[in-house]
Design goal:
This protein is mainly alpha-helical. It contains 8 helices and no strands. The structure holds iron/sulfur cluster.
Amino acid sequence: MSSFKMNPPSRVSSTLILIIFCLFSSVRNYSNKINWILDTTSVLKDKTIPKRLDELVKLKGIGRKSANVILRETHQKPEGILVDLHVLRVVPRFGLTPEYKDANKIEKILMEKLPYSMWNDIGMAFSFLGRTICRPTNPKCTICPIHTDCVYFKKIPNT
Ligand code: SF4
């Protein structure tokens, strides 16, 4: 914690800062994330959290990935598809997109290819698959629920 400098807005109480610190101190890049949250509290002041993607991404630390998650969790209409590091790995393996490191590019292709009715859940589904089954090394293809359609699986000898 020695190099951690917080810039809390004056109206944020030290109790709240302590709670935020306890909740986030085990998270990667916690100092940046805590400062983004504190910055957001001062930007939003008494306004509510935006309900549109173009407004959410104006907040510090909020990119399209987080904005898509916020829209989903607050039951708004989807405006995109969640693409995190797991989705970035899984969808090219599966054969749905070419391999790109750019999440925005992958999201755009998914939005073009997949029906709007799937946008809310498909990113989360691929992310969960990536976390549990389609791991970076040794994906557990034999227990994967979508292996019959997977390009990677079809290339494995004797399958
Ligand atoms: S079959 Fe294998 S490579 Fe394809 S999505 Fe499932 S776990 Fe990933």
